[in-house]
Amino acid sequence: MTKQAKTSIGKVFGNVTKVLGLLDTVEIVGKVTDSAMPIVTKALDRHHEHQKSLVRLDDVTHLERHTAQAYLEEQGFVVSQVLAKPSLKWHTAKIDEVVGMSPKPSKLPKGALVKLYYVDEALVTASQKLTQVPDLIGTDLFRAEQVLEEQGFRLVRELLPAKASYHDKRPFSVLSMTPRPNRIQTSLAKGSIIKLGYIDNETLEKSRQLAKHKGLDVTKLSKQAKDWLKNKQ
Question: What is the CATH number of domain 131-220?
Answer without folding.
Answer: 3.30.10.20
